[in-house]
Design brief:
This protein is mainly α. The chain contains 10 helices and 5 strands; from the N terminus they run ααβαβαβαβαβαααα.
């Protein structure tokens, strides 16, 4: 993404054009994924076991309440569930701002008793405990450079329903089928939210590769390499 934007910027710049600089930069560049603190999350797994129904899907939103995260698509999905009277529950987490996407606040009232949680979790422990309650995290953002919230959800065995776009091919398991938003309703009806223990384990293990204990050595090695070249 950075390189593509750089090419457009270079073309818009006045002469002299120096496209070779981008190629030099590309050869020296490397994408380093984030490192997250994902250890010990199992101890929060059973805190909310009695909340909601276990026989219906629990749908998660754990992103910022902002348009670029695809709130428009998620609201349309939630409202279609309500219109069809499909049995489903919602856990709505994430950071809110003074200016929220149009229609977002009214969604809470529309969901009614379907909504198990609405709003920012007061602690990390509370946040993690809610993730463990959920089955799927459907998201279709307008931009996504890593997808931290999706990785955190996968850490708690939540199935990602994401498009084959943005950073998701790099951050989700290879054997997970990408799911565009127009297929979410059908996936619910087909029972795709019901996953066997092996699938849940695979999702969890994939997320753990982004734990800082795994990512830290690679980041440190890269920083040492850069520092040695500078000196």
């Amino acid at each position: 993404v950075f390189m593509e934007a750089g090419e457009l910027w270079m073309k818009a710049m006045p002469k002299p054009h120096v496209p070779h600089l981008l190629e030099e930069l590309r050869s020296k560049s490397r994408v380093m994924h984030l490192g997250l603190d994902l250890q010990g999350w199992e101890r929060h797994k059973d805190i909310r076991r009695s909340v909601g129904r276990a026989d219906v899907p629990t749908i998660l939103w754990n992103h910022r309440w902002a348009w670029d995260k695809g709130t428009d698509t998620f609201m349309a999905f939630a409202r279609e569930i309500i219109q069809r009277n499909f049995p489903a529950q919602f856990v709505i987490l994430g950071q809110s701002f003074s200016h929220m996407p149009q229609g977002w606040e009214s969604l809470r009232e529309e969901l009614g008793e379907r909504c198990l949680q609405w709003g920012y979790a007061e602690s990390k422990e509370e946040y993690i405990s809610w993730l463990w309650q959920c089955d799927v995290v459907p998201v279709a953002p307008h931009q996504e450079y890593f997808g931290l919230s999706v990785v955190e959800a996968m850490r708690c065995e939540v199935m990602p329903w994401v498009p084959d776009a943005h950073a998701y091919p790099e951050t989700t398991p290879n054997d997970i089928r990408f799911l565009p938003s127009e297929d979410w309703i059908q996936a619910l009806e087909d029972g795709d939210w019901k996953r066997n223990p092996q699938c849940k384990q695979a999702i969890r293990e994939h997320a753990l590769q982004f734990d800082w204990a795994e990512r830290g050595p690679a980041v440190l090695e890269e920083l040492n390499r850069v520092a040695s070249n500078v000196s």
